[in-house]
Amino acid sequence: MITQLPSKILIIGATGGIGKYITNAIVSAEPRIGRQISIFTSQATATSPAKQDLLFSWKSKGASIITGDLNNSDDIKKAYSGVDTVISCLGRNVLASQIELLKLAEESNDVQWFFPSEYGTDIEYDASSKDEKPHQTKLRVREFIREHVKRVKCTYVVTGPYLDMYLTLIPTGEDAGGYDVKSKRAVIVGSGDEKVGLTTMPDVGKLVVAALRHPDASMGKVLKVQSLVTTPNAILEEFERQTGTKWTVDHTTNEKLREVEKEKWDANNPLAALYTLRRIWAEGGTLYEKTDNEIIGLTPGDMEPLSAVVKRAVNGEGY
Fold first, then answer.
1. Fewest CB atoms less than 10 Å from the CB: which of 5, 69, 241, 316?
2. For the segment 260-310, what is each residue's pLDDT rounded down to a tens digit?
3. CA torsion angle for 25, 87, 270, 248 (degrees, to 10)?
C-alpha cells in the first residue's frame, strides 16, 4: 500500500457533470498534487467545440489529454501505464464500465489507488439501501471490489446530494421539490424543517483533493463527507433574503412523494430515480452523527456556505 502522496494521476470522466469540478480542483490544487495529471477522454470529446475551453484550461495548468475508447481494454491498459492513482468521475449511465476498469487496474503493474465514482447518495446508508433501485449499479461495483480487487486500494468519497442540483425545481417533476428563482416559487417536501446533509459541486472537488492529500486516512476507506446540514425552509429563507421578496410555497407530503415515485417507476419514467433519491434525502438518509471531513483535514470553515450556492442560483450561474 502507498501511504505517500500520489505521483501520477489519471482522471476518467473529467468533462462530465461532477467530473469537471473534481478535475478542476485537482489540476488547480496548490500545492500541486502529483508530478503528472492525465485526463482520459474520447476522441469525440477531445475534439468537441463545446469542450475545448475546458480542456485547454486544464492543459494550460499542466494536465495532459489521452484519447481512447472507455470500452477498449488496450486503450485503458495504455492509459494506466505508469499511473499510481485513478480517479473515476463517470456518470450514472456508464457506472457499470467501472467493473472492467477495476479489473484492469488490479491486473496492472502500476495502479495502486482507485477512486470509484461514488460521489452522491450513500448506497449503504442502512439495511434498506440494498433495495433502492438507483443504487444497484454502484452496489454491483462495490461487490466486485470486495470479491476481486485485492491489491489496489479503493476510496469512496460519499458526498450525499449535490446542493447545486438539489435547489433545482424540475418542471416535469415538481412533486420532488426544488426552488425556481424566475417565478420565486418553491416546492418543499415534508414540513421543510427536516435536516438534509448536502455538498456543493465545487466542494466535491475539494473533498477529493483532501482525500488525495491524506492517503493514510483515506486509502481503502468509505469517506462520508459533506459541505453542510440545513433544511428546506432555511434554503427558502436564504432565497427570500437574497431576492428581497417572499416566495410562493407549495408542499409535497412524504406519502405523496412515495406515491409518485412508484408511478414513475411503473411507467419507466426517467425521472423515477430522482423521486427515489429525493425521498431518501427527505427521510434522513444523508445524516450522520459525525462526518469524515476532519480526518482529511477539512473544517466547516473550509466548505462553501449555503449563501454562496444560493447566490449562484439567483445570478443564473448554474452547474
1. 316
2. 999 999 999 999 999 999 999 999 999 999 999 999 999 999 999 999 999
3. -20
Catalytically active residues are: 138
**CA distance linking residue 220 with residue 94, whole number of Å:** 23
- pTM for the predicted model, two decimal places: 0.96
| Cell numbers describing residue 106 | 488490479
- Please tell me the distance from the alpha carbon of residue 42 to that of residue 49, in angstroms, as a whole number: 14
Delimiting residues of CATH 3.40.50.720 domain(s) in the chain: 8-154
pLDDT in tens, 33-46: 989 999 999 999 99
Residue with cell 427521510: 283
Torsion of CA 242, 247, 251, 257, to 10 degrees: -50
Three-class SS state of 189: strand
What is the number of residues in the chain? Answer: 319
Instruction: Tell me the pairing of strands 8-12 and 85-88.
Output: parallel
Residue 173: count other Cβ atoms within 10 Å of its Cβ: 20
